[in-house]
Amino acid sequence: MLRFDVVTAVPELLESPFAHSIMKRARDRKLLEVVVHDLRKYGLGRHQQIDDYQYGGGAGMVMMIEPIHACFKDLQQQRHYEEIIYLAPDGERFNQSIANELSLKGNILLLCGHYKGVDERVRQHLITREISIGDYVLSGAELAAAVVVDAVGRLLPGVLNNEESALSDSFQDNLIAPPVYTRPADYQGWQVPSVLTSGHEARIQAWRYQEAINRTRERRPDLIRDEEI
Strand order in 83-93's β-sheet? Predict the structure, then answer.
């Protein structure tokens, strides 16, 4: 079983993403465990402070190192984490390859940035990896954490009813998934390609592969090189 511990300043933002659909199924089947930790429980003083003004001045509050370190030490006394990941806009770009890699882990700790980010000493001394889900800034990394957990969790054996489904997803082979169709075969004159209704498995697979190449060249040419196909 894969376990995610998610440390956040706003745990309420993560109540829904893991309570429905495929993630709920994964948790119900004891294949995935997601535990959300409220960083304010480790906050300082009567007001459980977790952020402060930044040295040198400037707009925006910064998450303090003390509550984060205290939280991490508490969690690390209970289990060993193979990765301690800080979700930040300047981390390595999250992709299917990283999702595949993380799906082979046992315990992963995710830290959600908020406000202006975290004290740089957290990144220097407490984090093993930094991940970004894209070149934009969110109000907080809770949504990014949900993306990572979902992308990784669905890869676990037994989560999907048909495990081959994940293998044919976009990006698994550096290709965009080919077009898909369902009934009816003819809708207002708009036809499903005849090869898909032919029953000829080899031709269908060849058509899907070629369509995946065509779509990738058209929409994401950065993913493939001609010598690779």
Answer: 32-38, 2-8, 107-112, 83-93, 129-132
CB 171 within 8 A of CB 95: yes
SS3 state at 57: coil
Pairwise CA distance, residues 200 & 125, whole Å: 57
For residue 120, what is the enclosing H or E element? helix 120-125
Domains and CATH numbers, the chain: 2-153 (3.40.1280.10), 168-228 (1.10.1270.20)
Q: Note the pLDDT of residue 162.
A: 58
pTM over 0.85? The answer is yes
Q: Which residue has the tokens 């993630």?
A: 23
Average pLDDT over residues 133-144: 94
pLDDT at 164 over 90: no
* Calpha distance 140→41 (Å, rounded): 18
